[in-house]
Amino acid sequence: MNFERNILITGGAGFIGSHVVRLMVRKYPHYRIVNLDKLTYAGNLANLKDVDGAPNYHFVRADICDAESVAEVFRTYDIDGVIHLAAESHVDRSIEEPFAFAQTNVLGTLTLLQVAKLYWESLPERFEGKLFYHISTDEVYGALEMDGGLFTEQTPYGPHSPYSASKASSDHFVRAYHDTYGLPTIITNCSNNYGPNQFPEKLIPLFVNNIRMGKPLPVYGRGENVRDWLYVEDHARAIDLVFHKGRVGDTYNIGGFNEWKNIDLIKVIIKTVDRLLENPEGHSEGLITYVTDRAGHDLRYAIDSSKLKEELGWEPSLQFEEGIEKTVRWYLDNQEWLDEITSGAYAGYYERMYSNR
Ligand code: NAD
Ligand code: DAU
């Protein structure tokens, strides 16, 4: 079968990647979507059960740091577009093991850039019709004061955690490949995502899971930090739009204009879980446990995404109340998914799923 485009999505078995893969596979049956993922603790093929058999979907297990395997994928599938999401993504882990973040986020991204450059340079049309789209985070901009305005695309980089330092570095390499070699690149920097399939080490799924198990809810510091929350499918729609309509060489911020102080968000989560589990009101509030603050904890993130709205017409489609209800309901309805992950059982999922192929 001849496909109109051959798109490589890295990190497609993770949280955001799985939503992007599903959207692209379903919306573009005339595109071939190749999902390259190493399946670290955070990668889970169960997130993609519903598209696994689609004729335009292919999965390759590989490490983005392995140049030969990545080059083989470019040659085999004649890749003409990359949507790069693969990363180590959890701030707390980056504080414990910063080298893993430098390895995948910096060296892995550099490896992918170099492979794309070499492959596309070997073709007669070179970079024409090609795109390397890098998915990044608002954390590269550092932290805002409570009354410190919003991050715009002009905000200078000022990362604090090893995670954000590694993502900032990868962003710089992407721009360097554009400015030095003319590689067609785009970067988007997005705020905190929430929704189904997020690994339960991140605030929202961790707290939903702990409430259902009656376990303590560890609030860092006084719970005063602020994050700007966006429903993951709205992020996936933005990625689709930018991939097709974004200006090469440019950067776009993505966010929901939806700031929440952690403790206020936590109270909404508790209320929603208690209501859905038919617990009496306030039942789980006693689980709130204030713990030592995260080292270097950024006070506030808030994204100004008006450029994306004005230039490409993107807006979040879901109100937060609706999104949080949908999300909490999904985790409560998918307790098996949570139990598999929290028991560590799904590390063997790939072997079980592919052993007969
Ligand atoms: P995730 O941790 O849920 O998933 C990451 C995926 O990358 C996993 O499937 C994992 O197996 C894969 N991976 C990790 N190392 C790899 C390697 N060396 N080679 C190949 N695959 C590898 O992450 P997420 O939350 O879905 O984030 C995806 C991307 O979006 C990341 O680049 C992250 O920095 C960025 N981002 C995330 C958020 C958020 O709120 N989660 C917000 C803005 C930007
Ligand atoms: O802003 C985008 C970033 O959002 C992404 O780039 C990251 O990949 C993603 O993990 C997320 O980073 P955060 O550190 O903001 O997300 P996390 O869910 O870890 O924490 C959200 C807030 O909740 C943060 O202020 C820390 C706090 N927190 C978190 C956990 C896990 C707690 O108070 N207790 C917890 O147990």
Q: Mean of residue pLDDT?
A: 95
The CATH topology of the domain at 5-195 and 229-256 and 300-317 and 348-354 is Rossmann fold
The coarse overall form would be globular
| Helical proportion, percent range | 40-55%
First-last Cα distance: 21 Å
Describe the sheet with the most strands.
Answer: 7 strands, parallel
- Unreliable stretches (pLDDT < 50, length at least 5) are none
What does this protein look like?
- By secondary structure, the chain is an alpha/beta fold.
- It has a domain at 5-195 and 229-256 and 300-317 and 348-354: NAD(P)-binding Rossmann-like Domain (Rossmann fold).
- It is built from twelve helices and twelve strands.
- It has helices at 15-27, 67-77, 91-96, 98-121, 162-181, 203-213, 232-245, 262-276, 306-312, 320-333, 335-342, 349-354; strands spanning 5-10, 31-37, 57-61, 81-84, 131-137, 185-190, 192-194, 217-220, 226-231, 251-254, 259-261, 288-291.
- A seven-stranded parallel sheet has the order 3-2-1-4-5-6-10, with helices on both faces. Strands 7-9-11 form a three-stranded mixed sheet.
- The radius of gyration is 20 Å and the shape is globular.
- Residues 89-91, 137-139, 191-192, 202-203, 206, 218-220, 225, 227, 262, 294, 301 line the site of 2'deoxy-thymidine-5'-diphospho-alpha-D-glucose (DAU).
- Residues 10-11, 13-17, 37-40, 42-43, 63-65, 85-89, 104, 108, 135, 137, 167, 190, 192-193, 199 line the site of nicotinamide-adenine-dinucleotide.
